[in-house]
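Input.
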Amino acid sequence: MSRHSGSSRQRTHQSKQTNGNSEDVVAQVKSVITSLDDVLATRPHEWETYVPSARSAMTGLDRIHFFRDPQRLAEQIWIVQGLQDFAYHDADSGAIRDVAEWCQAAWLRILRNYPENVEALTGLASNWLQRAQATLARIHQEEGTDSSSQGSSSAGNSDRDEQMSEQVDSDDDIGSPPRDPRRQGPLYVEARGYLQPAVDFYTRAIRSADTLGSTSGSLLSSAAESQMSLGNVTGPPGDERHFTQAVRLLRRAEATSGYRLSVYMQQYLNDYGRYVS
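Output.
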């Protein structure tokens, strides 16, 4: 027996052992994801206890280079979405930052193999949109503190109503500076930095879904939310473009068979749809 053939058998044995270990890791990770889903559904107050398990799952997947295998797309999407749901279980209060950032990187790895995959594009867009929620909540809180007679939400709606009507009635103020200097503040800049990628990836997701003829009302509604949020932190005239696009997306979602807009989205469409042709 030659030394070469012995070495070849040894490499084959090591390869099989490695594959077996990789499958064990994947099985363990799937068990972790199921546990994370369960705790969020039944015992959300216990989430912190499960953070080490989530981090262990991430480390295991990185060790076996799980996202290099393009044949495991469905598993990859399911796992990343599960970890992302856990990372943003209370997005208004902030994310589990390292888990959220790992998910963002994982979506990008998937997109290297499947650049037009609707689920991956939607997952990445959602990551950016949810990442913005804590900053938007701080803006909302500051506006509420500054307002002596009404909450920031109603004030924002009033401003938006005025802006929408002005878009229809006149173009005289197109070149005027923003009326609210706060939109140039650091929180607004931070929010736009998160929301612009959300808008961009939702746009790509819709384009891919349209090509497949599978655009869902949920996708359109989430894309509309990203446009609305970006419009709220953008000064005029740029904000109008986002509000207008949000209305058009909501119209498409409303017309999607079997889909019903949320109460908030339906109210938005009812209130501002009349301003958009």
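The mean pLDDT is 86.
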